[in-house]
Protein 1
Amino acid sequence: MAKLIDLLPKRSDVLEIGCGNGEPAARLLAAGNDYTGIDVSAAQLERARAHVPDATFLQADYTVFEPSALVDAVVAILTTTHVPRTEHPELLHRIARWLRRGGLLLATFGSGDLPDRYEDDWLGAPMFFSHYDAETNLRLLEEAGFDLVKHEIVPMIEEGHGEVRFLWVLARRA
């Protein structure tokens, strides 16, 4: 996140897809930028508005969402893994079209191969998961028109699930 913020000019237009409750990304990105967060959950958006009252939040499904104008950055943290992986190539092409030339994408992806999986009780709610391995995700980003700025696999501890590894990517629209 810090690298993205360093690369963005002040007052950039930033769109976060799957913003959840706004913490911490919306709070950090809204400081000094024109931030819009979208999420499908009305309850999460209510929390986000309380956490970051000066930001804009919209209830929408980002797999069909179309912004009204081009943006300088798109952020997708811990969200792409909840979309069927067969839809990832088209989603990445759509995100590329949302960005101004040279715009930035900060996103996380799965780092291992996981066909569609559904868990009835993931942190108290049903949840869908799907992703490709890191190499495939990087290839899909390049095919969608992104130049990779930085990428790394980062381990995280998930409550009740132990260590999981995510591919963090910062990329620029070519």
Note: The first strand starts at residue 13 and ends at 17.
Protein 2
Amino acid sequence: MVVLGLLGAPFVVPHPRLAAAAPRCEARARYGRECSLCGMTTAFLAISRAQFGRAHAANRGSLPLYSVLLANQVCWWIFLRRRWRCLY
């Protein structure tokens, strides 16, 4: 459910509000360098607008991570649907 909220939030909550609510990167704050997830919020917001080039520029791993999370949700939905059929 958390992943579903993560993937669905950019479609329901205004982007400036989500960007303001995103946590600050501790690696950047403490050590002055980016971590592997820096730019991921910006990238996910860009993906929700179908701006894939901008998402890739924000974080190269955003498209693969988003794809994996989306595939996970599809598999979860299929599992629940099959489980529901078995029960009834």
Note: Residues 2-87 form one domain.
